[in-house]
């Protein structure tokens, strides 16, 4: 069986198609197709408060492409979720409805708490009994989740993200709210380890010279941020080979990860290859199982 997840973020929209594998009672998902396209919906919403006709047209075309890919792969079940940009857009719901009528793709506009829960459902599988601060930085929002003994103690979504910072549209006082939340929730008497998800931290992690498959340090993240910031936008694209829509937001995004880690006292960060799309896939599979047993 093949299932799919569509994640429509503030910077890009992603489609992942996976085959469901069963091995000795253990279920896993094998990626067979992954497409990422830089819609940059956050530019419209954080500047004008709504999505423009051009953004609607491009999103509609992309959903048509994604639908065709799912048909070619004979996907049986899928879910499409939109996050910060579309949920903050004054015309987000009506555009989602028009896209549904034009493409057949039903877009679920999820709130920050739902977004965090979907990501957490897969991230928690990579944790142990220690204290972890999960940092998920998107284009329009940042979700923080605190874990001890594999149990989530608290979480919060903040209106600050890579595209929002780039546009200078972060919510007033957002930095202070993050620091206050960390001060109120992180147990400073225990070691805290950061867990980073999101496209920018994954790219930074891949650029860092590292000995671990999943872990790097705050010092390495800072060093790489300073290194990238030393290049012009054009050189980031041509010399560092970053995609254009990654080249301009990677430094603002890294500033969020670095600030959160410093405030929390975290010296190490785990970067699992997981994100919202993985949480959506898991939810799709769980819903299929519930329907089959109904």
Summary, kept brief:
This protein is an alpha/beta fold and 294 residues long.
Structural write-up:
It is a single chain. β1 and β2 form a beta hairpin. The protein is an alpha/beta fold. It is built from 13 helices and eleven strands. It folds into two domains: 2-110, Nucleotidyltransferase, domain 5 (2-Layer Sandwich); 113-276, Nucleotidyltransferase, domain 5. It has helices at residues 41-48, 53-72, 84-88, 92-103, 112-123, 162-166, 174-185, 199-207, 218-229, 233-238, 244-247, 250-264, 276-292; strands at 2-8, 13-23, 26-37, 77-82, 107-109, 131-137, 142-148, 151-158, 192-197, 215-217, 268-270. Helix content is 47%, strand content 25%. The longest helix has 20 residues, at 53-72. The chain has a six-stranded mixed sheet, sandwiched between helices. The chain has a five-stranded mixed sheet with strand order 3-2-1-4-5, sandwiched between helices.
CATH architecture of the largest domain: 2-Layer Sandwich
Strand order of the largest sheet: 8-7-6-9-11-10
Tally of separate domains? 2
The backbone outline, from C-alpha atoms, is globular
Q: What number is the mean pLDDT?
A: 92
CATH class of the largest domain: Alpha Beta
Work out the number of β strands.
11
Q: Please count the helical segments.
A: 13
Query: What's the Cα radius of gyration?
Result: 19 Å
CATH superfamily label of the largest domain: Exopolyphosphatase. Domain 2
């Amino acid at each position: 069986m093949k299932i799919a997840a569509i994640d429509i973020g503030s910077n890009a929209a992603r489609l992942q198609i996976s085959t469901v594998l069963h091995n000795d009672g253990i279920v896993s998902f094998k990626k067979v197709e992954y497409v990422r396209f830089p819609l940059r919906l956050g530019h419209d919403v954080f500047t004008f408060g709504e999505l423009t006709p051009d953004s609607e047209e491009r999103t509609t075309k992309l959903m048509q492409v994604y639908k065709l890919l799912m048909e070619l792969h004979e996907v049986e079940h899928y879910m499409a979720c939109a996050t910060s940009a579309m949920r903050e857009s004054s015309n987000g719901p009506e555009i989602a409805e028009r896209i549904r009528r034009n493409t057949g793709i039903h877009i679920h506009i999820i709130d920050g708490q739902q977004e965090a829960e979907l990501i957490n459902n897969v991230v928690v599988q990579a944790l142990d009994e220690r204290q972890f601060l999960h940092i998920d930085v998107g284009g329009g929002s940042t979700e923080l989740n605190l874990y001890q003994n594999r149990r989530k103690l608290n979480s919060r979504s903040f209106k600050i993200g890579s595209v929002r910072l780039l546009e200078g549209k972060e919510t007033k006082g957002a930095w202070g709210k993050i620091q206050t939340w960390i001060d109120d929730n992180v147990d400073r008497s225990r070691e805290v380890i950061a867990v980073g998800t999101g496209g920018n931290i994954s790219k930074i992690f891949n650029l860092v010279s590292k000995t671990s498959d999943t872990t790097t340090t705050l010092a390495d993240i800072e060093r790489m941020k300073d290194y990238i910031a030393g290049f012009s936008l054009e050189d980031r694209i041509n010399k560092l080979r970053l995609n254009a829509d990654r080249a301009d937001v990677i430094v603002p995004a890294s500033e969020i990860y670095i600030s959160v880690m410093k405030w929390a006292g975290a010296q190490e960060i785990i970067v699992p290859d997981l994100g919202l799309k993985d949480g959506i896939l898991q939810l799709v599979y769980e819903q299929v199982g519930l329907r089959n047993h109904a």
